[in-house]
Structures are given as C-alpha cells and as structure tokens.
Amino acid sequence: MNLKYVLSCVIPLIMCFYSFFVDAAPKVLIVLSSYGVDKGETKPGFEFDEFSQTYSIFKNNGLEIDIASPRGGSIEADKYDADKPYNQDFLNDKYAVEKLSNSLKLSQVNSSDYAAIFVVGGKGAMFDLPFDRNLQSLIAEVYENKGSIGAVCHGPAALVDVKLSNGDYLVANKIVNSFTNEEEAMFGKKWSKEFDFLLENKLNERGAKFQNSPMMLAHLASDERLFTGQNPASTVKVAEALVVSLGITLAKRVPWDDERTYDLIAQLIDSNNSAADEYKKSSKGYQPQLLAMYGFYSLKVAKNVSDKLISLSLMELGALYFDHPKLSLTMAKGFKDLGQTQKAKSTLQNLIKIHPEQEEAKTMLKLL
Q1: What is the residue-wise DSSP string for 170-206?
Q2: For residue 121, which of 216, 5, 209 has the smallest C-alpha distance?
Q3: What angle do CA 153, 158, 164 make, to 5 degrees?
Q4: pLDDT tens digits for 319-334?
C-alpha cells in the first residue's frame, strides 16, 4: 500500500483524536489604535512597549493571538526603543511581525472566536477607539459570553461607551482605572487638549468606581472579568490577570528590569528600607535612570514635605548609579527648599567636582 496514501488518511484521524481530548488554546484579540501617523509626531498611535509586553505574556502562556484595529492592515506605533528586551523579542518573531503588519479590521472580526479582548493604550486610543461601534459590540458580546476584557493606560477609552444588553454601561459600578488626570497633566500635554474628554472624568461619569495608585506606578483594577491598568507600568499585571481569568496557570518568567524598578519604587514609597538596602548593594536588574527620573517628576507634583522627602530619596538612590547634572541641581534645590542646607551644599560640591563647567551649581553654592 502506498505510504503517502496511508499517511494522508491516518494523520487527520490523529489530529481529530488529539483535538477531541485536548482543549484548544484560548484565543485572545489584541486591539490597537489605527490613528497614528509619522511615529506619533503628526498623529499619536499606540504604545509599542505595552503591545509587545502583552503579546509576550500571552504567547508565553500558550494563548492564540489575533491583532485588530479600526482600519485594519498596517498601523503605526509611537516612537519606541527597539532595543528593550520585550520589543526585541517581538521584532525577532517574524510570524508576530506579519500579524501586526496585517492587522484584522474590527468590522470583520467575529466575537464568538475569542475568549478575551485586550485593548492596548497610547494617545491614539483616545481618538478612534471610543467611537468605534464595532469594537463596542465586540467587547460587550465577549464579556456577556463570559469572556474577559483587559485594557491598559489609554486603552480603557474603548470601554466608555460600551453598553451591555440590559442597557447599562459595562463600567458602571465596576472598579476600574486608567491613565489619570494627574498623569495626563504631567505627561500628556501635547495631545490632551485635543481629546474629546479626559479618561478619568469620563469613566467616573459612566458610574465606574475609579481607583488609582501614585503617579506612573503599576495599578491593576479587577472586577467581574474586567481588568484595567493605570499606565504603561501596569501592562504586565493586567495581561497576567487576564491570563489567569482564562483558567491558565501563569508560566514562570524573569521580570523585566523596568518592571522590577517600578516595583522597587512602590516598595520605597511604602518605606521598605530593606528594598533600598538591597538596591544599594547592586543595581543589577534595575534601571537607576528610571528610578532617578521617577523621583524627579514626582517632586514636581509633591504636595507636602513627606512627599518631597520621598521624591528626593528616590533621586538620591538613582544617583548612586546614574549621573546627570540636571538631576543633581534639582536635588540640591529640593534640599534647600526643605531647609537641609548641608545636604544641598554637599550635593552641589559633588556635582561641581564631576562637572566643573556647571556655573549654575557654583552660583547656587555661593548663595547657600
């Protein structure tokens, strides 16, 4: 008997037998904004870091992944660092890159194909996703079919007008979060004036129970298969919560350096001195620049002496392994404002020793 003929008969039977006894992997739809042009310079697009981290989490946990957008086809992310490990992993996956280059059009997507939908953020999400009726229907149908919905940063913009079959807004009376008004004021000035609404305000208008963590720290809000994250740092927590909601035990992995750094910042804000001591021993696995810059920006919005002291301590820890004149000048001004003249002087003296060209530091030191 012809072997080729036998195999052609047997293999389909084997596959049928396998599929009968082994559940197929859950299928999830990642939704991205189609709005971006010129890497976010002309029009904002989606956040590539959020997308690649989400894709990595889903892929490593065995999910089948589709990518969709309002217009379909090729879509643009805002400018991003291709050297970050999660971005490198994605860009080296030809199959994944092909999927992104040929995103599905939301109007052609069938909700019954998916166990979950995840909406990636980026400022572009504020311009097209809230108004896409196809996306609203998909989210409502997947949710009412006992599926899970995830969204991060500006991704929850896709949820604001989603109504369930009973006429209620999906987010009504549910715990949610998103990019906050405070974060928008600090980091969204270029585009927020063109938004139809501020996301925190609109979610509250829809009856959501809005909650959040301090500026730019990871925060996961979960309520009845709805998972929302505050900002880019929240991406992994939202993606993993969605995976768990599908009955999957999370695969072990090594946290990314920026992920570990945000967790460290949260511990330091909670006065976890042991975390600070561990970091002082070695910065390996952390990003000192991120730690320092978090302190720098949090100082700008600090409301009291306690907040200012925390911000300055974060900057000091970052400065142990990261040197920048502007950082040292800001620290010196902060110490001066709090009446810690000696710390201000020593900070300036050290800055001038490393950067003798810093005239502003010399002038400030003379006035102390």
Answers
A1: TTTTSEE--S-HHHHHHH-HHHHTT-SS-HHHHHHHT
A2: 216
A3: 130
A4: 999 999 999 999 999 9
pTM of the model as a whole:
0.91
- Side-chain half-sphere CA neighbours of 184 within 13 A: 20
H or E element: which one contains 69? strand 64-69
The residues with which 228 forms a beta bridge, in sequence order, are 151, 221
What letter represents residue 241's amino acid?
A
| Residue count of the chain | 368
Question: Are 140 and 167 contacting, i.e. CB atoms less than 8 angstroms apart?
Answer: no
The 3-state secondary structure of 268-303, one letter per residue: HHCCCHHHHHHHHHCCCCCCHHHHHHHHHHHHHHCC
Closest C-alpha among 247, 248, 278, 241 to residue 261: 278
Q: Give pLDDT tens digits for 211-250.
A: 999 999 999 999 999 999 999 999 999 999 999 999 999 9
How many CA atoms lie less than 13 Å away from 361 in the CB half-sphere?
A: 24
The residue with tokens 């320092």 is 292
Identify whether the C-beta of residue 55 lies closer than 8 Å to the C-beta of residue 97.
Answer: no
Query: How is the beta sheet containing 226-229 ordered, strand by strand?
Result: 104-105, 64-69, 27-31, 116-119, 148-152, 226-229, 220-223
Q: String of b and e for 197-225 (b: at least 16 CB within 10 Å)?
A: ebbbebbeebebebebbbbbbbbbbbeeb
Q: How many CA atoms lie within 13 A of 179 on its CB side?
A: 26
Using the structure block, give the residue that is written with the tokens 């643009």: 76
